[in-house]
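ARCHIVE CARD
CATEGORY: sequence design from structure
SOURCE FIELD: tokenized fold
FIELD CONTENT:
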């Protein structure tokens, strides 16, 4: 059984100072970076990131302020994330809204679920931003795809406390465990 850590959308635009900031973004980014540098990271066979990466995302920018435009500073991973300790990066939302990391593909065009299955990954720990949006969508898709999922709640940043809590309950109901 292989296990992967999925770091969802820990990008500048979702952290303080960014276009769609969450309050805890910096803190969560630092905690994830610390995990990547701690002995506990040995539990993971792979560490994967997802990034919102918009080129022309249809009406997505009617719903939200412009954010995470492909290659822009706002779309970069938070500097606390240890980029030399990432196994693969997945990009989503190029031409439409995409909340789930499972809509993302890597530079070779491979989808996240397929990439994980190719490597025998069955267990996922998921963390990132924002709890109620992209983390939630990624977790629900992971469960649908048949993965065992744990949400690392202290490593998630919510838009606000209430929606964050509701989302965690919903993910738990759907079959995720909370860590
Ligand atoms: Zn977006």
């Amino acid at each position: 059984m292989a296990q992967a850590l999925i770091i969802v959308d820990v990008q500048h635009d979702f952290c303080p100072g960014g276009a769609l900031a969450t309050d805890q973004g910096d803190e969560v980014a630092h905690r994830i970076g610390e995990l990547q540098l701690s002995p506990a990271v040995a539990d993971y066979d792979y560490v994967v990131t997802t990034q919102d990466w918009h080129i022309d995302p249809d009406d997505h920018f009617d719903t939200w302020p412009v954010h995470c435009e492909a290659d822009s500073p706002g779309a970069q991973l938070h500097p606390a994330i240890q980029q030399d300790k990432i196994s693969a990066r997945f990009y989503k939302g190029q031409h439409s809204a995409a909340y789930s990391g499972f809509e993302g593909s890597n530079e070779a065009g491979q989808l996240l679920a397929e990439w994980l299955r190719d490597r025998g990954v069955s267990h996922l720990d998921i963390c990132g931003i924002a709890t109620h949006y992209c983390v939630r969508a990624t977790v629900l898709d992971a469960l649908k795809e048949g993965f065992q999922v744990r949400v690392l709640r202290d490593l998630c940043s919510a838009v606000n406390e209430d929606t964050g809590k509701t989302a965690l309950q919903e993910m738990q109901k759907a079959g995720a465990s909370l860590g």
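CARD ANNOTATION: The CA atoms of residues 8 and 128 lie 4 Å apart. The domain at 2-125+138-178 is CATH 3.40.50.850 (Rossmann fold).
SHELF: design records, drawer C
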